């Protein structure tokens, strides 16, 4: 959701290493992005909550997203702020950090203390 909002991949400007993992486990989250529709931003931030018990369940997401789809025709009459960054979204961006890796790999560098 954050990638749709920002137009870039999360943490693309830093290496995806044990330091980033530790920071995420300690509460690091991407911030909301200017130009994101308010209802989308609210749901995105709920999904990113550091406390898993505060995140919506799959059933809640299904219900929430279903409401968006059923309300879609009326939203053309009452348009929220559009995704202003969506047109710049590029998954092949050359501006990412050389240590930012967006595919599965073994995490052998992580010690068992995490």
From TrEMBL:
InterPro entries: Kinase-like_dom_sf, Ser-Thr/Tyr_kinase_cat_dom. Residues 3-65 form the Serine-threonine/tyrosine-protein kinase catalytic domain. GO terms for molecular function: protein kinase activity. Gene3D superfamilies: Transferase(Phosphotransferase) domain 1. It comes from the Eukaryota. This is Serine-threonine/tyrosine-protein kinase catalytic domain-containing protein. It comes from Rhizophagus irregularis.
């Amino acid at each position: 959701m954050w990638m749709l909002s920002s137009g870039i991949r999360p943490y693309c400007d830093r290496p995806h290493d044990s330091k980033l993992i530790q920071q995420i486990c300690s509460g690091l989250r991407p911030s909301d992005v200017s130009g994101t529709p308010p209802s989308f931003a609210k749901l995105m931030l709920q999904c990113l909550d550091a406390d898993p018990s505060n995140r919506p369940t799959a059933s809640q997401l299904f219900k929430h997203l279903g409401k968006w789809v059923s309300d879609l025709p009326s939203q053309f009459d009452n348009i929220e702020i559009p995704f202003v960054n969506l047109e710049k979204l590029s998954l092949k961006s050359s501006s990412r950090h050389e240590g930012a890796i967006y595919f599965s790999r073994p995490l052998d560098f992580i010690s068992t203390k995490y």
